[in-house]
Write a structure and sequence with these properties.
single chain, 4-stranded antiparallel β-sheet, 41% strand, mainly beta, 312 residues, Neuraminidase, globular
């Protein structure tokens, strides 16, 4: 994530974030026992980077996967998780997220000018619709539960902030305005909250919640390590996220916690980075990107009590 900040060099502000904790006063993250979860590869092949971002279809049977081989050689496809069949998505050169009805995909695509923009792709007609285009970078797009709002990141005001676009009104709402870095936002399953990570001036990342009705912001984590890449379990009661408290240097492992920030459990412990975790619609499989060899998309499976399937 720190590399992203370094490389990526609307409307009325809804409300300001009221500052972050002083790193000098923040307590170190506590050590937590690691669940011995079995990790399985979904798509991971030498010589090609493959990744997902909230890419599962509504029924959990398909996934949008992005890929690149470096330079300008990149694309995307739909992966059938049962058969392994791959259907290319020629209009997309980056990962995307399905709408709740499964009819469209929203994605951040690379443009020739060396920037990213948000588009919506209709799977039946092939039509591509730009979403609030802007000269600055836009990325990490996903839908609300009714498919009528698109949440994304933008540098359109000079810093990385969180916006939503209403498909009904074609209007933007700016959710954050702090001079730091806010990103990787996701609506809660009932759309009452937005989960995101933010970095202060010292690039210390923590997780926050926005109440979508009042605009009130709650800080969930308060550690001097990187706490980021948060997303929701379908129940809305549990959050999965990444933290580098074990390895440092942005090499995050995956953790679970209650939606109020309590009861933290560690899922992975690997020297390579595990990030961008997202649950399947039934909450029984966690998909994530990993830099482990070979780099790609991996998964962890859970039982009905949200206990992961172990190595044994």
């Amino acid at each position: 994530m720190r590399k992203l900040i370094q490389s990526i060099s609307l409307l009325a502000i809804a409300f300001p974030i009221t500052g972050y904790s002083d790193p000098a006063k923040v307590q170190p993250a506590p050590k937590i026992a690691v669940d011995q979860c079995a990790v399985k590869a979904v798509v991971a092949e030498p010589g090609i980077r493959q990744f997902q971002f909230d890419g599962l279809s509504p029924d959990g049977s398909q996934m949008v996967v992005g890929w690149d081989r470096g330079d300008q050689d990149r694309g995307a496809y739909i992966l059938d998780l049962a058969s392994g069949e791959r259907t290319p998505l020629p209009p997309l050169n980056n990962v995307g997220s399905f709408a709740p009805d499964g009819k469209t995909i929203v994605a951040s695509v690379y443009l020739e000018e060396g920037k990213n923009d948000i588009i919506e792709y209709d799977l039946a007609s092939g039509q591509v619709t730009p979403i609030a285009p802007h000269p600055n970078w836009e990325w990490s797009a996903s839908y609300s539960s009714d498919g009528q709002s698109i949440l994304f990141n933008s540098y359109r005001e000079g810093t990385a902030d969180i916006y939503s676009y209403s498909k009904k009104s074609a209007k933007l709402k700016r959710w954050t305005s702090d001079p730091g870095y806010e990103a990787h936002a996701q609506f809660s399953p009932d759309d009452t909250k937005i989960l995101y990570n933010a970095a202060d001036e010292d690039q210390v990342f923590n997780l926050f919640l926005i109440d979508t009705a009042s605009g009130a912001i709650t800080q969930l984590t308060d550690y001097p390590t990187e706490e980021s890449y948060g997303s929701w379990h379908p129940s809305g009661n549990t959050i999965v996220f990444g933290s580098d408290r074990g390895h440092g240097g942005g090499k995050t492992d995956l953790f679970l916690m209650n939606s109020d920030g309590s009861n933290i459990r560690q899922l992975t412990n690997h020297p390579k980075k595990d990030a961008y975790p997202f649950f399947s619609p039934d909450g029984k499989t966690l998909y994530f990107n990993s830099d482990r060899e070979p780099e790609g998309v991996y998964k962890i499976e859970f039982d009905e009590n949200l206990q992961c399937v172990t190595q044994g």
